[in-house]
Design a protein that fits this description.
Radius of gyration: 19 Å
Structural class: alpha/beta
Order of helices and strands: EHEHHEHEHEHEHHEHEHH
Number of strands: 8
Largest sheet: 8 strands, parallel, barrel
Strand content: 15-25%
Length: 217
């Protein structure tokens, strides 16, 4: 499963990229606003840090303007992935862009039927929001299972990008189901490294090593 980080903050992206485990980045208007930086500038900087897809979202709601915005965004770097909402105009834009070889991430997916439409429109990625699904009384991971089944039934190339990830259990469940990608805030990704027994084991090893009075260097 590919790991994307969901942020527009540069330093966390650099830190995760340095591990060699980061496959891409997702951003959205809310994250850009939170960063307090210029949209084009921060997107360009992120694209220079990671080799994988960097999702940059259009803000127009009509197809014609979405296409104009996409034309500007995809000139930023070769690894820009245009992010569009799951609407009729968003899917029209998706179809036009992917037919031209541009990566497209269709976002704000909340049903398997919507995911089916995105795949038919040629989406590179579909982003179902599991956390927001859970918040509204549904099981977000059931949605991922349904999409996985449908995509496997018809051999759709669209990759399932699990979004709105709130905790490490979401990551585990997504991996067990067979999602292609997950995107999570930096804190959730860092939490994947943590386990109380790992910390306890390191503490014990270090204490025993100190007793030897030796040094490797």
């Amino acid at each position: 499963m590919k790991f994307f980080v969901d942020t527009a903050e540069i330093e966390p992206i650099r830190e995760l990229a340095a591990t060699g485990l980061l496959d891409g980045v997702t951003t959205n208007p809310s994250l850009i606003a939170k960063s307090g930086r210029d949209f084009m500038e921060v997107t360009r900087e992120i694209c220079g840090i990671v080799d994988g897809p960097v999702s940059a979202e259009v803000v127009a709601l009509d197809h014609v303007t979405m296409m104009k915005e996409a034309e500007v965004l995809r000139k930023i770097a070769d690894n820009v992935c245009i992010k569009v909402p799951l609407t009729v105009d968003g899917l029209k834009t998706c179809k036009a862009l992917t037919s031209d070889g541009t990566m497209v991430n269709v976002t704000l997916c909340f049903s398997a039927n919507q995911a089916l439409l995105a795949a038919k429109a040629g989406a590179t990625f579909i982003s179902p929001f599991v956390g927001r699904h859970d918040d509204n009384g549904f099981d977000g991971m059931d949605l991922i299972e349904d999409i996985r089944l449908i995509y496997d039934n018809y051999n759709f190339a669209t990759e399932i990008l699990v979004a709105s990830v709130r905790h490490t259990t979401h990551v585990l469940q997504a991996a067990k189901i067979g999602a292609d990608v997950m995107t999570a805030p930096p804190a959730v990704i860092h939490a994947l490294f943590k386990h109380v027994l790992t910390d306890k084991g390191i503490e014990g090893f270090m204490a025993d090593w100190a007793k030897t009075g030796q040094s490797i260097l």
